[in-house]
Specification:
single chain; 179 residues; mainly beta; 7-stranded parallel beta sheet
Amino acid sequence: PIYFSRAGEIGHNQEHGYKIEAQASNNQIRGGEITENVGHGLLITGVGTSGNIIGEERSEGIEIDKPDSSGDAVRIEGGASDNTISVNVKHSGANGISLIGSGTSRNRVQSRPVNGFYFPTQIDSVTDIGILIAEGASENVIDGARVRGGSVGIEIRDRNSDRNRLRGVSVSKNRGDGI
């Protein structure tokens, strides 16, 4: 496993900021800023890619600033499971957080406990959807997220995306539907 604490700035890359794939598991990225990468800010992909912890236990977490439209701020896909995400998306030209595909399950987007207080995952100013769950992603948990300023706040799309749970979410000031 890899452990990054206060990783600094990961930015201006021609592909993704971070890419965790091919059954990589139990990695931790605790802090830093992901900014202006051409691909996704953070991509977690593939069956067996699990148990990764992204941005937990710091009041500011990981900041993601991705103003262009070429990729999502955070994308979990292709059967990646049991990952924990706590980030602040400041801007995204596409989606804030996307959970996509069959087998993409049991991932958590959650608030961060810091000194007895809980700081929500925040998603602000996205062009498309704040949080998208689609194409068969199931049993994921969105817990303690604040989503605002997108075309849609949270969208769960298609009949095979089932058993997902939303708890303690705040959705406001979107141009279209809240949830």
